[in-house]
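Researcher: I'm comparing several assemblies side by side, and this is the next one on my list. It has 634 residues spread over two chains. Same procedure as the others: predict the full complex and return the structure.
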Amino acid sequence: MISPGEAAEPGGGRLWNVSPHPQLSSAVAPGPGGLPVTTAEAAVTALYQAHALGMIRLAHIMLGDRAGAEDVVQEAFCGLYRRWSALADTGSALAYVRSSVLNGCRSVLRRQSRARDQADGQQSAPPPGISAEAAAITIEERQQVLRALRRLPARQREALVLRFYLDLSAEESAATMGIGPGSVRSAIHRGLESLGRMLQEQS
Amino acid sequence: MNQLEDRLAAALRDTGEEISPHNVPPLRLPARRRRVTVPRLPRRWMAWLTPLAAAAAVAAVVGTSLAISATFHGHTRGPGPAGAPRWNGSPLGPRSALNKVPPYFVVLPPQALIYARTALVRSTVTGRVLATVRPPRPYQVFTWVSGAADDRTFVLAAQRWWNIRSGAAGVRAQDRDNSTPTVFFRLTFDPHTRSTQLAPLPIPETIRSGQLAGMAVSPDGTRLALDVRHSIQSVEVVPLVTGTDRSWLWLHPGWIGNWKPMGQVLSWSADGRYLEFQQWGGRLNETMHVRVLDTTAPGHLLATAKVVLVYPHSSGFGTLVTGNTFLTPDGTRIVAATSFYPRQRRQPGYTQITQYSTRTGRPVLTEDRFSFSVGGQEVLWTNSDGSALVISDPRGKKDSYGGRASVLGVLAGNKFTPIPHGADNAVNIAW
């Protein structure tokens, strides 16, 4: 019941004084009367408690690897903490973390693909964290969708996940991905087209 | 949404929900740099301090260049960053060490997402599967297992579980999977006939699957301790034969159990009197206490349990525990896999098996140290005084991240003896 990140929602939420654990709220030292907490540590920790679960889930979808997802999210929040004082608008911290998580996932996937290339073109074995779970996924249909999704170009894949997992609007996705809303819509359109084609080929 | 979008949304949602709220690790923020103020020196000192500083600078340059030169000649090149030592655990031990731990153990392999459709009884010495047990219908998966001290009695928790095809859902996976009641069975293994017997246990209370965060059967197999997360978290001890259960409440911030409740969250002393558990503080960076509850003492509050160890997770540095902690059955030690997170980057981080005195709270033994880059460890069982442990450590096959897979083995006398076919990929495991 009182576990970390339990009430976190994938889509995010208010930044301040939001804790999934009412008991923890006071520990995070929010300011009086709903004013923002002032110290970076308390603010980032509160943000982490509220959104870590959603972020780890997002990274897990992108990477298919739980341990890797945890590392990426950890690094994203540490990055936020380091740059807290330079953040122009602390209200945009969640978007900043979301972008960092996507960037981190991109880097991990790039490294993985490089490692695969170096292994004489052989398909590298899945990491231990994923193998047990991948082996355990029993819905063939879901596997197909995920396989197809992971074959898409990074931009299309991210646009689809932000739209269909986090329910972000094109504008919100654009802010997260650092591209224009038009490009997001086009990436979603093309991504769905390619996904449909690949799934049709598989079936 | 059209059908394709439905399928995509369902696949993404189900994949995301593989991460349960209990899987979120603590946040470890980097250390804050402190601004050091240098006291101003009297002006008259500056005259002779200047040449001294110049000489020190020259010495530093010469020293650095010598160090670089030596590094390129391979003299001080270490396997880790900046020549940091790389630890690879204790040396291998003799096969006879396998006889120091109970001969049979039960593994729950992940077969349905994170759940096990079967429980496997395996031999510690040969690693072979001696029996396979399935939950009786309508229950489909086992979620927890705990072993008594007689080598052949185990308690299993089971629940109903089913897949819902994408697009046909409407209820989130965690709700549909975790709201069904948990049922408990006693598994008895007969090594002579290799037969098993599964008998339902009379637990009076209905515990939804998502509310069970751990369990431990007492050494004599007569009582079951449950870590239950209702609206108020509690530890309950249920007599398995007669009588009524007793519960202790946790009324403060935080929770009871380890970070990733997939191991042995509670442990008993040999006489079944003391029950050990972890209590996470719920403060910044999660201070964790290891407590020992006297189950014969009056009262109904977990806060009265004695604190034997404190891990102040100040900024996430120092020595931390994120897995199981065990009270040795003789009650003298706490055994845990501990991780050392250095405050300074140049310092190497490592994990190791640490034993603490329950009397003083100080470490009395450390063994089997591994560098962070190699992988993690877990303690899974301890004998009476901690001189023989079952652990998992990262000395398996190399993985694609440069680390190594975890394997099961016996740690005795700072030597590790692998259990045959002991790849550690279990949902839960008990000796």
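Model: For your comparison table: The mean pLDDT of chain A is 68.
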